[in-house]
Amino acid sequence: MLKFTKDHEWLRIEEDIATVGITQYAQEQLGDLVFVELPAPGSGFKQGAAAAVVESVKAASDVYAPISGEITDVNRSIVDDPSLVNSDPMGKGWFFKMKIADPTQIETLIDEAAYWALIS
Amino acid sequence: MPINFPNGILKEHLHTRTAAGLFDVSHMGQFTVRSDSGKNAARALEALAPVDLLGLDEGRQRYALFTNSRGGILDDLMIINRGDHLLLVVNASRRDADEAHLRHAFSNSCAVERLDERALLALQGPLAEAVLTRWCPDAASMRFMEARGLSILGMDCVISRSGYTGEDGFEISLAASGAECLARKLLESPKVAPIGLGARDSLRLEAGLCLYGSDLDANTTPVEARLEWVIPNRRRRGGRREGGFPGADVILRQLAEGSARRRVGLRSKDRTPVRGGCKLYQDEETTTPVGQVTSGGFGPSVNAPVAMGYVVSAESTPGNVLFAEVRGKRVPVAVSDLPFIQPNYKRVEQHRAEK
Q1: CB contact (8 A) between residue B10 and residue A32
Q2: Per-residue model confidence as pLDDT tens digits over B24-39
């Protein structure tokens, strides 16, 4: 199941794990990324808390935990090569995986059609 | 001028360093200062700026600073000797203040004209000469900080061989009505790309050049800003025209004895960009900062974060490791020489390097 947030993040939900990244629109708005800071695996975040940081040549921006949960895995390859987020934001440019703490929070997310409506 | 064009800041920056970038910097303020003789205009401006203008030959350009009575910098600017007048290019944000300052100081001695109908285009990069000479062959023989009145496409222009990128290049002052036509002609060349404010900032930062309002302000002196190279010996203590500019007591004392803080370059030890406003500390624990970052970001040509800021003078030695506080974390940064890149100016002679 693919979900989105109004903060321009996407989540791919498989059983109790959500893989999180930023959208094509977000990477276009940010411009060329030059730095990514990821959370420590094992750390826990509340929905809406800043979990990661991206920096473009322009500015720094937070990436929020779209739901509450514990970080189970992070994508080290985007730390070594932040341009992966620009070139493949919904594939190789994923940020982290979370163990979903509260499945009801999924209801607060929007689906792809609603996200498209938001950015168009 | 937008932050960036569709190419994006990174590509625009690298294009300027490898080919040629076109900047519409018409927001900069342009003024002429005239007197009954060119020398009197130079003399009048020397009363506002700790530089040598009587020694500025016709057709030459010089970097200058307006100072206040406390030795602080009111603006940084470029001055061209055009023979019968001086042409000034000042920061957009300081245009009104500079105009008032000039008119107040020169109420009788000089005529000040604000050139709001003039545009300013900058063509910067190693291929700038090859591009411009197609439209203006005479530009090829110009050297760094030279300025001439030349015709391009039948339009009268004042062209200087200078810029704000650390690259060879030209700044072209012309009537605003002709600027679009010239910009379109220059952009016809595949060597030229339009460049926005984002890359303008990363280019000047790598070149170690200050941005007024960030790296320079009315509370910062030329010595603190490491710009003492603009002040010639003849205006220093014991010189033939010692002092005679606002804040001379403070500035001349600092030239002799040093200042409590100094502008330095800063290079991150890891990949974390350190931006303006970050506080600098001696170590990972202390709570009293020893300085502050004034400009910083990713340097595309350096391929690493670069920054500049002010630190207490005891901490200003290149190689000294400090810690910048970024999002609550202390990131190690090393004090570094400026500029971060090797400038590529078309020099007329070996110039004093910026130290």
Answers
A1: yes
A2: 999 999 999 999 877 8
Concatenate the DSSP letters of all residues of A22-91 into one string: E-HHHHHHH-SEEEEE-PPTT-EE-TTSEEEEEEESS-EEEEE-SS-EEEEEE-THHHH-THHHHH-TTT
Domains of chain A: 2-105 (2.40.50.100)
pTM of this structure: 0.93
What is the predicted pLDDT for the residue at B349?
A: 55
**pLDDT band at residue B348 under the 50/70/90 scheme:** low
Residues in chain A: 120
Chain B residues contacting A via beta carbons under 8 Å = 3-4, 8-11, 13, 198-199, 202, 271-273, 275, 297-298, 300, 305, 327
At the topology level, CATH places domain B20-190 in: Gyrase A; domain 2 (3.30.1360)
Interface confidence, given as ipTM, is 0.84
Q: What is the mean pLDDT of residues B276-295?
A: 97
With a CB cutoff of 8 Å and minimum separation 6, the contacts of B279 are B289, B291, B292, B293, B324, B325
